[in-house]
């Protein structure tokens, strides 16, 4: 049985400028699969509807995964052998669905004089409609016997497997030409995704987050340890969710000051059965963190000498 949660919070820098949250997040849990998805609207001048674009991105992802799981047993049977081709098809359909939502929205809600007033006529004419809604996307899907993920643009996907390790199975590697940000709004967006697939290890929990979360940590170690701590507390999910939400609010105001989104799905039985292992891993990570701090302090003292 799967469970999950998701939350987006507005960053302090956006509050100070009275800007809406550009992030969106969602999760869906079914008997056969669970999906965790986040999106980070670009928010810059020409992406003036990116908060809407990010919402469309998470909606499009959930809807697309739903379509592929219309016959769950058939999908589970055929997917492992054909996962590369199927994931590519999923990515294409997410982009197609997102573009359809953008077209419907701009038709029903034409650009307003206020939105257009920030540009010269020449500047505005040079912007593609899709760019108004530009956004990243990170999605994780936990199935019965396998898991996979996909992303376009920056952000992070963390998976915790039944060995207790929190890993980045798909690190950000922008598949775009120089000076071009991988985005849902690019004409060749479907070719800019990165993805992964695993079926050899049992996944306990999967997390997707926008880059505002990652940049609030001092190192990869701290970032991954944070996810291990969450995974070790998922046996008391309701209390854990409340704690995570408070932590995200704190980080969005006193850390990165950026919008932050985090979405999680997990195997309820899996985290319960492996809870002792996860707690042991948390303790080990604390010891390693203390050792790293001591080494850094020692190195600093030697440098001063």
Fold and architecture overview:
- By secondary structure, the chain is an alpha+beta fold.
- The protein has helices at 12-16, 50-68, 72-108, 113-116, 121-125, 211-214, 220-232, 237-254, 268-273, 275-304, and strands spanning 2-9, 23-29, 33-40, 137-143, 147-152, 156-161, 166-167, 194-198, 203-209, 260-267.
- The strands form 2 sheets. The protein has a 5-stranded antiparallel β-sheet with strand order 1-10-9-6-7. Strands 2-3-4-5-8 form a 5-stranded antiparallel β-sheet, covered by helices on one side.
- The chain is globular, with a radius of gyration of 20 Å.
Give short descriptive properties of this protein:
five-stranded antiparallel beta sheet; 10 helices; 10 strands; globular
Short description:
Helix content is 46%, strand content 21%.
Helix percentage: 40-55%
Distance between the termini: 57 Å
Output the structural class. Answer: alpha+beta
Give the helix tally. Answer: 10
Which CATH class applies here?
Alpha Beta
Radius of gyration over all CA atoms, rounded:
20 Å
Strand content: 15-25%
Per the principal axes of the C-alpha atoms, what is the gross shape?
Answer: globular
Strand tally, please? 10
Which strand order spans the largest sheet, edge to edge or round the barrel? 1-10-9-6-7
The name of the CATH topology is Phosphatase 2c, domain 1
In the CATH classification, which architecture applies? 4-Layer Sandwich
pLDDT < 50 stretches = 174-179
How many strands, what sense, and barrel or not for the largest sheet? 5 strands, antiparallel
Average pLDDT figure: 92
């Amino acid at each position: 049985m799967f469970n999950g949660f998701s939350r987006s919070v507005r960053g302090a820098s956006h509050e100070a400028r009275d800007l809406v949250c550009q992030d969106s997040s969602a999760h869906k849990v079914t008997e056969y699969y669970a999906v965790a998805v986040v999106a980070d609207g670009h928010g810059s001048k020409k992406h003036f509807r990116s908060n809407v674009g990010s919402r469309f991105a998470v909606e499009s992802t959930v809807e697309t995964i739903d379509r592929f799981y219309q016959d769950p047993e058939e999908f589970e049977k055929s997917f492992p052998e054909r996962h590369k081709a199927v994931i590519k098809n999923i990515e294409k359909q997410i982009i197609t669905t997102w573009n359809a939502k953008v077209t419907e929205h701009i038709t029903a809600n034409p650009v307003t004089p206020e939105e257009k007033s920030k540009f010269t006529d020449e500047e505005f004419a040079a912007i593609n409609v899709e760019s108004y809604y530009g956004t990243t996307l990170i999605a994780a899907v936990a199935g019965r016997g396998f898991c996979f993920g996909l992303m376009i643009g920056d952000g992070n996907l963390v998976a915790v497997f039944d060995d207790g390790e929190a890993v980045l199975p798909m690190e950000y590697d922008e598949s775009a030409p120089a000076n071009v940000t991988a985005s849902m709004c690019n004409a060749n967006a479907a070719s800019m995704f990165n993805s992964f697939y695993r079926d050899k290890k049992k996944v306990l929990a999967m997390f997707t987050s926008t880059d505002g979360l990652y940049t609030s940590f001092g190192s990869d170690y701290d970032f991954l340890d944070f996810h291990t701590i969450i995974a070790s507390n998922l046996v008391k999910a309701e209390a854990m969710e409340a704690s995570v939400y408070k932590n995200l609010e704190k980080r969005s105001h006193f850390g990165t000051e950026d919008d932050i989104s985090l979405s999680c799905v997990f195997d309820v039985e899996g985290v319960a059965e492996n809870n002792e292992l996860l707690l042991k891993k948390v303790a080990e990570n604390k010891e390693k963190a203390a050792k790293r701090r001591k080494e850094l302090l020692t190195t600093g003292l030697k440098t001063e000498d």
